[in-house]
Amino acid sequence: HLVESGGGLVEPGGSLRLSCAASGFTFRNAFMNWVRQAPGKGLEFIGRIKSKSFGETPEYAAPVRGRFTVSRDDSTNTLYLQMNSLKTEDTAMYYCTTDSIVVAGTWAFDIWGQGTMVSVS
Amino acid sequence: DIVMTQAPLSSPVTLGQPASISCRSSQSLVHSDGNTYLSWLHQRPGQPPRLLIYKISNRFSGVPDRFSGSGAGTDFTLKISRVEAEDVGVYYCMQATQFPQTFGQGTKVEIK
Fold first, then answer.
1. What is the chain A residue with the closest CA to B41?
2. For position A102, what pLDDT does the model report?
3. How would you write the pLDDT of chain B (112 residues) with one tens digit per residue?
4. I want to staple A109 with a disulfide (CB 3.0 to 4.6 A). Which of A61, A97, B55, B104 is the partner?
């Protein structure tokens, strides 16, 4: 179970931090991802963070690299997305999703939250 | 980045009839470990995506057996043997063989 929060309306150049609360699985072992979807558009992967045993390394897609930061707190089972220098093109529904939790080794996004909407205007 | 191209982008289908969606990648999705990390997701209007198929042809938990995946290398197909009303929405293929993961543009399935 994943529940995102923190979305809202922000001006261009502003910042926002999204949270994703996880439950029902061993969060500390999970690779966690953020995927976004602009209104009426398709899905876009934006970043992920590996589990602590894999170095807790964050990785980013090019459009957000240097502006967005993915982090995690395994003590509270929470994933974060810090978004800085926001642009109008960052307007989207932001989803957190797990990687290979239900079936190990699939490298598929198997659990999705309901999403939180970010509007940059 | 690997580009994923789906066809068709829209597919009007009759209830009870089959549907097929193609997904082509700009390079082979065979990983150095021998696996092909190609999955299919379904998104109903107003809902988050949900996983249907992983590693080309494996149905995810709870997915009806009318859904099947096939393909290899750069060419993949999702088939619905008999479309039901709950199958409407947008279908996406996604590759995870190479970072960053990338999605197809989506194929909208609607009932005629």
1. A109
2. 87
3. 999 999 999 999 999 999 999 999 999 999 999 999 999 999 999 999 999 999 999 999 999 999 999 999 999 999 999 999 999 999 999 999 999 999 999 999 999 9
4. A97
In 3D space, the residue among A28, A15, A21, A2 whose CA is nearest the CA of residue A118 turns out to be A15
What's the angle, vertex CA A9, arms to CA A8 and CA A10, rounded to 5? 120
Q: How many helices (H) and strands (E) are present in chain B, helices listed first?
A: 0, 11
Q: Indicate whether A101 pLDDT > 90.
A: no
User: What is the rounded average pLDDT of the residues A88-116?
Assistant: 95
> Least CA distance to A60: which residue of chain B?
B100
Q: How far is the C-alpha of B39 from the C-alpha of A48, rounded, in Å?
A: 18
Does the distance separating the beta carbons of B96 and A108 come in below 8 Å? yes
Nearest CB neighbour to B48, from listed A45, A108, A114: A114
Contacts of B55 in chain A (CB under 8 A): 106-108
Sign of the torsion angle spanned by Cα atoms B29, A41, B52, A73: positive
Using a CB-CB distance cutoff of 8 angstroms, which residues of chain A are in contact with residue B94? 43, 108-109
Q: Report the residue from B100, B101, B103 with minimal CB separation from A42.
A: B103
Helix (H) or strand (E) holding B110: strand B107-111
Task: Locate A65 and state its tokens.
Answer: 């690299």
- Which chain B residues touch A114 with a CB distance below 8 Å? 48
Q: Do A95 and B49 touch (CB under 8 A)?
A: yes
